[in-house]
Amino acid sequence: MAHKKQFLPTKICAVCKRPFTWRKKWESNWEEVKYCSEKCRRNKA
């Protein structure tokens, strides 16, 4: 049975200010994640 995804944590991107949701690839470092995408991470300046 598939997981229910409505209760995943969200954050606001430091660059584009839009909300983004937890992803499996961030499982080990969710506390450090600040950007919703590679594009935003590269454009942080």
TrEMBL record:
<dbReference type="InterPro" id="IPR017136">
    <property type="entry name" value="UCP037205"/>
</dbReference>
<dbReference type="Pfam" id="PF10013">
    <property type="entry name" value="DUF2256"/>
</dbReference>
<protein>
    <recommendedName>
        <fullName>DUF2256 domain-containing protein</fullName>
    </recommendedName>
</protein>
